[in-house]
Amino acid sequence: MSVREAYNRWADQYDHNNNRTRDLNMQCLRRAELPLAGARVFEAGCGTGLNTEYLASQAEQVVAMDFSEAMLKRARDRVGQPSVWFEAGDVTHRWPGNDDSCDLVVITLVLEHVGDLGPVFTQARRVLHNGGLLYIAELHPYRQLAGGQARFMPEGSDTEEFVPAWNHSVSEFVSVALAAGFDLQRIAEPAFEDDEVPQLLQLWLCAAFDAERK
Ligand SMILES: C[S@@+](CC[C@H](N)C(=O)[O-])C[C@H]1O[C@@H](n2cnc3c(N)ncnc32)[C@H](O)[C@@H]1O
Prior knowledge:
The chain is of the alpha/beta class. The chain has a single domain, classed as Vaccinia Virus protein VP39 (Rossmann fold, 3-Layer(aba) Sandwich). Helix content is 32%, strand content 25%. It contains 7 helices and 9 strands. It has helices at 3-14, 20-30, 50-58, 69-78, 118-127, 141-145, 170-180, and strands at 40-44, 61-66, 84-88, 102-108, 128-139, 151-152, 161-162, 182-188, 200-207. A 7-stranded mixed beta sheet has the order 3-2-1-4-5-9-8, sandwiched between helices. Strands 6-7 form a two-stranded antiparallel sheet. The radius of gyration is 16 Å and the shape is globular.
């Protein structure tokens, strides 16, 4: 099953499943001190819009993209603000939006499903103006090495489906980001309250100054 097919099948249950990683990610986003006031935000891999709703409540405008039609439909049904546009698209291909048109790019719980991170960071840097911020929160590689992987139980089945995933180390995230024109501003590795092992890797990456860019 492809990543897209898996999320199309998972979509109806995604918001209601017991999913501590999803919930921790939501909390972390809300505490991430993102510069949302007046911001033009691009959310790549918005899923069912759990975070789009929050971003839209704070920012000036949000473009939210996903390649799963079923996840995107839930997001559209959830978030009705006129300041939010939804787009169907693959984060590894060219994103909608002009160069330098965004203040903030948000990507959460998406990149474990992407093999080659380079095109994603290149697109994020393209749409961000100089000094714009890329915020990432992903399943921590320690968790992946211990067998953590997005999974769900399809309706009517008693067998879990694993969504295809790739493991990216912390140094891979940072190296690819630097190569794409970002500076590392801040890094954090939040864990569940009852556990010492980090669950998420959070990165705040600033679009480095480029004299040929705005
Ligand atoms: C675990 S959900 C996370 C959704 C949301 N970002 C959140 O934090 O709740 C992962 C989402 O990433 C999307 N996704 C994965 N790979 C993608 C790709 N290459 N292009 C676009 N969306 C992708 C999936 O369709 C799914 O909706």
